[in-house]
Design brief:
The N and C termini lie far apart (92 Å). The chain is globular. α8 runs antiparallel to α12, α9 crosses α11 and α11 runs antiparallel to α12. The protein is of the alpha+beta class and 381 residues long. The protein folds into two domains: 205 residues, Elastase, domain 1 (Roll); 156 residues, Neutral Protease, domain 2, CATH 1.10.390. The longest helix is centred in the middle third of the chain and has 24 residues. The strands form two sheets. Strands 1, 2, 3, 4, 5, 6, 7, 8, 9 and 10 form a ten-stranded mixed beta sheet that branches. A two-stranded antiparallel ribbon has the order 11-12. The structure holds zinc ion. Zinc ion (ZN) binds next to α5 and α6.
């Protein structure tokens, strides 16, 4: 009899600790509720994990880095980003409640939440359109490093990097075909006034959109070594990238004010209508690289208005994925160099939208006419 009891006990213990560690898993982690900027710690489903005890799966792995990544000199940084040397697994500790994994320390809770936020971007784009099937676009996606508490300062500067959530494609030997992908999250900087960027789901989907934009739109241009004809075109591409990222962040967060949960005073609420101004057009036409976020915020707000007007944000999202895929064809060429502005990009977007739903085109066109400002005028001529 005692032997029998021992046998039962061993069976129970092993079934407790030896459940599946990959596949579709339930994890208690930080996630948004339906209310603006209200987050909770509750069970969520992860779909792409290979091994939860290593926070590793199809979309990459969560790691940490002890030193300051950009304080080190340039060649050290190349070694870290080129080889992954110095990036370390975080100490993962889970309990179980039924089939749900329960993080037992801060790093495990934050790391699992970070994985969840990045996975939300992967699931969105993989489901939107065959063009944005990320697993096909990025064959080495599982090599992606999601760096938790990445300490980043700019070389020669004392201040913390303000870019405290970031997507960074690293080119091995400067080859655009050989890319290692990084997401950085630095949650403890005093610059953050609200929700840490790494667990603000809209923000990490914003960063994931930069990865998709890189593979759909920028990569071919870099491979062909096709430059821009002028700064207007270069600044437009940079602002477009930011604006699309805000819009896709909204598609997952389902809150047009998701950015404000982290930075409450920034003009990044998509539901506040915004129009391109002549001053902005003049600014990005100058012979210099201009900060991309203000123009991006206008583009994102226009996309929000279009989605509201047609009553279908997901179809608008699909049409924007197709816009990214065809962006190089949207540009005209001057002596082989690419040239476009927001007027031209809006026209290409209307074409991709019409391919999906021709009955939506006139409504979207009316939104553009209202908010494109100087770009609406130039495209009408
Ligand atoms: Zn961005």
């Amino acid at each position: 009899m005692p032997v029998f009891i021992l046998f039962i006990t061993v069976i129970m213990l092993s079934s407790c600790s030896n459940g599946p560690v990959g596949g579709v898993l339930s994890i208690r982690l930080i996630q948004p509720t339906a209310d603006h900027c209200r987050y909770t710690i509750a069970p969520a489903t992860l779909y792409t994990v290979d091994n939860i005890y290593e926070l590793r799966g199809r979309i990459g792995s969560v790691v940490t880095f002890d030193e300051n990544l950009l304080d080190s000199n340039q060649s050290d940084q190349s070694i870290v980003l080129g080889t992954g040397a110095g990036l370390e697994s975080i100490v993962v500790d889970f309990g179980r409640s039924g089939s749900t994994f329960i993080p037992l320390n801060y790093d495990t809770l934050f790391g699992a939440s970070l994985y969840f936020a990045v996975e939300q971007g992967f699931l969105l784009f993989s489901s939107l359109d065959t063009v944005s099937d990320v697993a096909k676009l990025v064959p080495n996606l599982s090599d992606t490093k999601i760096v938790h508490e990445a300490r980043r300062t700019f070389k020669g500067e004392d201040s913390e990097a303000v870019d405290n959530a970031e997507y960074k494609p690293y080119f091995i030997n400067d080859n655009p075909e050989d890319i290692r992908n990084y997401f950085f999250s630095f949650p403890t900087t005093p610059l953050i006034e609200g929700m840490p960027l790494g667990v603000n789901v809209g923000i990490m989907v914003h960063e994931f959109t930069h990865l998709v934009f890189h593979y759909l739109a920028r990569k071919q241009r870099l491979k062909d070594q096709t430059g821009f004809a002028d700064y207007l075109s270069l600044n437009t591409e940079r602002a477009l990238n930011e604006g699309l990222a805000d819009y896709f962040g909204f598609l997952v967060a389902k809150d047009p004010g998701f950015f404000l949960c982290t930075f409450p005073n920034e003009p990044r609420d998509l539901s506040q209508a915004k129009q391109f101004s002549q001053e902005y057009h003049n600014e990005i036409s100058q012979e210099k690289v201009v900060a991309p976020h203000s123009g991006g915020a206008v583009w994102a707000a226009i996309q929000y208005q279009i989605g509201q007007a047609i009553g279908d944000h997901m179809v608008n999202g699909r049409s924007l994925v197709r816009l990214m895929g065809g962006l190089m064809n949207c540009a005209t060429r001057t002596e082989g160099k690419l040239k476009f502005d927001f007027g031209k990009v809006a026209k290409c977007h209307l074409d991709s939208l019409a391919q999906l739903r021709s009955d939506y085109q006139a409504t979207a066109q009316a939104v553009y006419s209202r908010y494109l400002g100087p770009y609406g005028d130039s495209s009408a001529k």
